Amino acid sequence: MKDLIVAGRYAKALFEIARLTHEDEEIAAELEALSAALKGTPAIEKTLAHPSLKTAEKRELLGRIFQEKRRPFYATLLDFFTVLFRKNRFVLIHEITASFRRIADEAKGQGTAEIRTAAPLDPALETAMVSRLEKIAGARIAAKKALDPALLGGVVIKIKNKIIDGSVKTRIENLRKELVKKRTV
């Protein structure tokens, strides 16, 4: 929990800088791309997070990665990553990325809902669900859909910091707990 709070603070600081230069969307996209790349190659992530590697060497490594693209906001990102390296907080890059996206979306009056279902949703049902979520959130909602057969049926929705769990799996688990509870009484 503490790491999420710290990640949120770093994300907010980066967002404030990005917003001043009107590069918040570009930086969000680059953070997401870097986070995905690091998840795909854990060895590089481990190297960048390792405390024995000097900050200058880590910065140079990322600089080489960004050098290929040469965009103006890369200097901001490299400076931000340097702060993370110095404070040994680069291990929070995925949490910072998620927090940054959430902050950027909120600033634009948008939100994201993660919708997990056991089977693909009917388009009409998905539209109705997103419409209802927009009313609840008071913002436009972009749906990120995922299939999760382990749910058995129903839906699990994560929006902002709330989880709405209407899955068959959870209902069965709750019923099991009730039965065990009544049996022991």
Summarize the structure.
The protein is α+β, with helices and mostly antiparallel strands. 63% of the residues lie in helices and 14% in strands.
| Helix/strand order | HHHHHHEHEEEH
Q: Helical content, roughly?
A: 55-70%
Name the CATH class of the largest domain: Mainly Alpha
Please, how many helices? 8
- How confident overall, as mean pLDDT? 88
| Low confidence ranges | none
Overall 3D shape: globular
Main sheet: strand order = 2-1-3-4
Largest sheet, in brief, is: 4 strands, mixed
Structural Rg:
20 Å
Under the CATH scheme, the architecture of the largest domain is Orthogonal Bundle
* Structural class by secondary-structure content: alpha+beta
**Number of self-contained structural domains:** 2
Beta-strand percentage range: 5-15%
Strand segment tally: 4
Give the full name of the CATH homologous superfamily of the largest domain: N-terminal domain of the delta subunit of the F1F0-ATP synthase
Task: Write the CATH fold name of the largest domain.
Answer: Peroxidase, domain 1
* Gap between N and C termini: 35 Å
